[in-house]
Structure formats: C-alpha cells, structure tokens
C-alpha cells in the first residue's frame, strides 16, 4: 500500500499550511535534531494586531548557533515572557468570535513547564493537532537513530525508507532542493505541497494572510478549520504545459522588445 511521509522542523504556532501538511501525510516526522536557524520560524510567528501582522517571539537562552533544535532552551526568564505573550494575544483577540474557546488552550500551551525548545514546541503541535482532530502519527527525527547524513536528500530518503514510504510530501518552496530523479532511483515519488488561498473574516478589516494558526483558530470554529485543512494542491514539480507556453511567449516578447524598431516590424 502506498504510504506518504512529510517532514518539517518543529515550529511554534505555525501557519495553517503546516497543519495541512501534517493532515495530508500518513506519517509526519519532526526534525527536532536539525540545526536551529536564527531568524527562522521555529520560535517566531505573526498574529493580528490592530489590523496588521505583529511578530511574536519566544525568546531563547543564548547558545551556539550550530546547535540542533533539541539542544536549544527557552530563556531563563520565560515565565515572565509567557505572561507578556499571553497578555499580547488577549489584547489582540479579546473580541474575536472564538476567543473564549481558544484562549484557555493557548494559555495552557504557552505556559507549559518545559524549557527544551524542541519538546516545548512538539507539545504545542500535538495538542493543536488533537484540538483539530488530526490523527496523523507524529514522530521525532532524533528517535530514529539515523546514520549521519550530510546530504539533506539522503536524510529524507533514509527516513522515508524507515517507514516504507513511497511518496514524500514537501512544501513547494523547497522545489529546487530536491532532485526528483534521485528520489525515483531510490523508490520515492516527490510531491510538492501548496496551500491554496484561504480567506476568512478578521474584525471586518482587509484580510491579512499567512498568520499563525492562533489567528485561524480565533476566527473560525473547529469544523471550519477542518474544512480548510483540505484547501491545498499537490504537484510533481514538473512545469505545466500552460506554464511552459507562457514562459516561451514571454521570452519571445522580451527578445522582440530588444530588437531595433525596423527589425521588430519585419
């Protein structure tokens, strides 16, 4: 039987597409043993504040940047930072339609007594999946005892083989990172995931897209969010005929525009 696998770094309160990817897979692997990326999205995201996107950060203890995520720690003052984050979310969403249902869950997750960044994040992801009735098994990359792989593609292939997967799902932003032929030689199909446009009402303001799942939950009931989980498309990364034709016509137009007027008219 065909089996689909997806893998991502653990992100705190990620956007809707992260949960779509989990729900679309038969197995989801958290890359807790991957390197922490400074200024990435592991411990940061955006919420809505006064009609604009507001960046929120879960501060970390100072440490070496090359350490993996599962060796990074939340700051020693995170208890106070948690108060600040909870207050900020309360102020931003107090009048949201599902604030009363969602805020107790968010506060419990934010105040979870765990300083290890990977474990803290994993707990939040699992609890949010349970809230949304996403039943995909979630495993840690660090528990798989993989052989050391310098090549990102070989790591994915090794993990996929561990679960006898036949298809690897990856966000479309990583299309250039993976060689489909290399995967095919190793018995894997690569499919690229793209979240479709999802729009919902936010306090009557112009819609601000790509915010944290916090925003989605504040303005939509669980059933509505579950319906949104299916709003994505998959592709094999091969340009469509229409896209190829458009690219060809565009190049031809660019060539013509650079010709002298007399030649272009002939």
Q: Which term fits the overall shape?
A: globular
Structural class: alpha/beta
Q: How would you write the strand order of the largest sheet?
A: 5-2-1-6-7-8
Number of helical segments with 4 or more residues: 10
Low-confidence stretches: 240-248, 252-266
Domain count: the total is 2
Helix content: 25-40%
Elements, N to C (H/E): EHEEEHHHEHEHEHHEHH
N- to C-terminal separation?
60 Å
The fraction of residues in strands falls at: 15-25%
Main beta sheet: 6 strands, mixed
> Using DSSP, what is the number of strands?
8
Mean pLDDT: 89
Radius of gyration: 22 Å
Describe the structure.
By secondary structure, this protein is α/β, with parallel strands linked by helices. The protein folds into 2 domains: 4-235, no CATH class; 239-266. 40% of the residues lie in helices and 15% in strands. The protein has 10 helices and 8 strands. It has helices spanning 16-24, 78-93, 99-110, 117-131, 152-162, 180-185, 213-219, 222-228, 241-258, 261-265; strands at 4-8, 27-30, 44-49, 52-57, 138-140, 167-171, 189-195, 232-235. It has a 6-stranded mixed beta sheet, sandwiched between helices. Strand 3 (44-49) and strand 4 (52-57) form a beta hairpin. Helix 2 (78-93) runs antiparallel to helix 3 and helix 3 (99-110) packs antiparallel against helix 7. The radius of gyration is 22 Å and the shape is globular. The termini are far apart. The model is unreliable at 240-248 and 252-266 (pLDDT under 50).
